Amino acid sequence: MGHHPAGPSGHATRLTTLAAIFIAAFVLRMTVPILWPGIHYPDEVMQSLEQAHRLVFGNGLVPWEFRDGARSWLLPALLAAPMWLGDALAPETGAYRLLAQALVAALSASTVVIGFVWACKHGFRHAVLAAVVLCAWFELVYFGARALGEVVASAFLFAGLYQCAAREPRSSRHDFLAGVCLAGAFVFRFHFAPALALAALWRCRTEFRARWAPMLLGAAIPLLVLGIADGIAWSEPFASIVNNFRANILQGRSHVYGTSGAGWYVLQLVERWRYALPAVVLLALWGARREPLPLLVAVTVVLAHSAVAHKEYRFIYPALLLMVFCASLGTAELLRWFQQRRAGSAASRGALFVACVAWLVSSFALAFAPTMRPEWTRGRAGIELMSRAGREARCGVGLLAAWSWTGGYSSLHRDLPLYLLDWDRDRWNTQAFDAWILPQGVLDPRLARYRLVQCDVQGAAGAEALCLWIRSGGCDATGATNEAQHVLDTTGQ
């Protein structure tokens, strides 16, 4: 598939193919929030959806990052428009949230289309395998619709790498576009800076006038947007980066949320990819003979994040994307070698089919392996019970659980007070609210005239399951001192 049929029909066929790939990837990613609504980590809500909800509807919990100016408003602002549209099109439903997640899923699906076009340069097998692997690899599906800066930034990063990896001479317009994409990745996740710098150096080398000038001009656009946004929100251009670096790196605030050794990411890959890890690594190395830049950037992302004490698996999401892309190319190279040894198009097509099935089976098996299986339902109870509380409560919602794992107002979607209860029962006023979410089995709310309406799997923050209790009657907020109107502590980087 190195060349395409000329003429309108060939162009239409190509567009239809790309559209089909995009739709397949998008639908697969959206199955996660639809079938398995949950939270991988509170950041995907509190730093994005919750702040977008605050922008659009006026209510939302405020984590410390948005008090101290340690996050930019770009991601919440990006999600605000689809969130508003979802509520306008289908009020009293969850469309406001799903449409915001759909925008992230669309950005994630774009990497599958770009990967297909990128791999087309090397042949039909490469293109098919790249599309299949990027579309269906379990972690890309799992993270694909989550409103995380890493996922959004990775879409821009992948597009930028596609431009930077081009070997043939290209116009300044392509370098300009590469600059826009790489800087777009930076403004959503500045921690990728070393990897982005590597990609820019790979493309431009020492050609300042021909390459660096248009690339830097393109990069100036997203950087200008970030500078203006931070200037408006925090009274200083790029304050979100400076404040985040100061708080998490210099002051060590992220250490509160846990620290890990330098080899933690490698151990995580061993645990999550299991038997597939050696095969993926070897195939990625083989594929890197064709396209070295993606694997070099993946290694840079892992090494850069390994140097920081606070580690979370989601931080290396772009490395996962780039590794399996290179591995898909390596698989195609293996099939090419197989064809050279066994001539025949029938055998070649059969081998391609077997390779695609092998990737799909491996992805499915790893998705439901013991390490990954609980991830699909993690945080589900918090999301669903808070949403139901929003439909049934009239006075407020009490929370005896980790509030950041409930989705906050982006799940509640009502202008009702939230009461964050500690374990000092003498301070509780259970008549201030009429919906109560708490871990299953810790106490019996029936003594306060509550009735159980639903329990669900949570699997996060020390709670295996959460339950929603509702009571009828009036509400008396006298003496309720822990309404969630202050700034709250949530996450690390």
Can you give me a brief rundown of this structure?
The chain has helices spanning 7-35, 43-57, 65-68, 74-89, 95-120, 124-136, 138-143, 149-164, 172-188, 193-204, 208-234, 239-250, 264-273, 276-288, 292-306, 317-341, 345-367, 380-392, 408-412, and strands at 397-399, 418-420, 435-439, 451-460, 463-470. With 493 residues, it is mostly helical. The model is unreliable at 485-493 (pLDDT under 50).
Order of helices and strands: HHHHHHHHHHHHHHHHHHEHEEEE
Q: Helical amount among residues, as a percent range?
A: 55-70%
What is the residue-averaged pLDDT? 91
Instruction: Report the principal-axis shape.
Output: globular
Query: Could you tell me how far the N terminus lies from the C terminus, measured between alpha carbons in angstroms?
Result: 43 Å
Q: What structural class results from the helix and strand content?
A: mainly alpha
Total discrete domains: 2
Number of continuous helical runs:
19
* Most strands sheet: 5 strands, mixed
Total E-strand runs: 5
Q: For the CA atoms, what is the radius of gyration?
A: 24 Å
Within the largest sheet, what's the order of strands? 2-1-3-5-4
- Segments where pLDDT lies below 50 for 5+ residues? 485-493
Q: Strand portion, in percent?
A: 5-15%
Describe the structure.
The protein is mostly helical. It folds into two domains: 7-38 and 69-376, no CATH class; 379-470. Helix content is 60%, strand content 6%. The chain has helices at residues 7-35, 43-57, 65-68, 74-89, 95-120, 124-136, 138-143, 149-164, 172-188, 193-204, 208-234, 239-250, 264-273, 276-288, 292-306, 317-341, 345-367, 380-392, 408-412; strands spanning 397-399, 418-420, 435-439, 451-460, 463-470. A five-stranded mixed β-sheet has the order 2-1-3-5-4, covered by helices on one side. A hairpin with a 2-residue loop joins strand 4 and strand 5. Helix 8 packs antiparallel against helix 9 and helix 16 (317-341) runs antiparallel to helix 17 (345-367). The chain is globular and about 80 Å long. The two termini are 43 Å apart.
